């Protein structure tokens, strides 16, 4: 609660891993509705992104949004009543803000590229993800790096094909068993993917191409 990662207990709306700026409070109080909606839609996969963003902009006119509880209440009021088996309506918004202020997806792409460069042949890369955005990046990275690039035609020179830098250990990700989820409910969404490093040189492909693009206004992009 001290850094505002959870809405289960009230606390300052920060979400920064390093305590730096801008933090989540800065974002929700400075970004316009369009930029907030883009963040919620891209990093939270929130279907009601525009509606929630407008509610935030309306509410902050009376006073800055500084706590996790107030933000969660605003999101809750802007969302339809939830069924008991559904996640809290603020879950995706909090995820989106946390990913945005910490640049988490770019950090993941950077770490995967570093592992590709630094692992020795037969070294193992094991990654556990907890939401679909992370898992898509890891899945695509391993898919691209574990299969030689297809030649555009049979007439293309053999040199055009890239050597695979990883060999996937299994096709589908490992997921927790029911007894593991019972012991640790937070593991419910976890997915584990693993691969073995080959002796091929690291790929020159841009790792940040794996990260979903976020369309922000020029003024807010420069500020953030």
Structure, explained:
The chain is mostly helical and 224 residues long. The protein has two domains: 1-102, Putative methyltransferase TM0872, insert domain (DNA polymerase, domain 1); 105-210, Vaccinia Virus protein VP39 (Rossmann fold). Helix content is 42%, strand content 7%. It has helices spanning 24-30, 33-44, 49-60, 68-77, 91-102, 104-118, 132-145, 178-183, 218-223; strands spanning 124-129, 166-168, 191-197. The two termini are 24 Å apart.
Shape: globular
Mean pLDDT figure: 89
What is the rounded distance between the termini?
Answer: 24 Å
Count up the helices. Answer: 9
The CATH homology group name of the largest domain: Vaccinia Virus protein VP39
**SSE order:** HHHHHHEHEHEH
- Estimated helix fraction: 40-55%
Structural class: mainly alpha
Low-confidence stretches: none
Strand order of the largest sheet: 1-3-2
The CATH class assignment of the largest domain is: Alpha Beta
Q: What is the number of domains?
A: 2
Number of strands: 3
Strand fraction: 5-15%
CATH arch. level architecture of the largest domain: 3-Layer(aba) Sandwich
Write the SSE topology.
Layout: H1 24-30, H2 33-44, H3 49-60, H4 68-77, H5 91-102, H6 104-118, E1 124-129, H7 132-145, E2 166-168, H8 178-183, E3 191-197, H9 218-223
Antiparallel strand pairs: 1-3, 2-3
Helix pairs in contact: 2-3, 2-5, 6-7
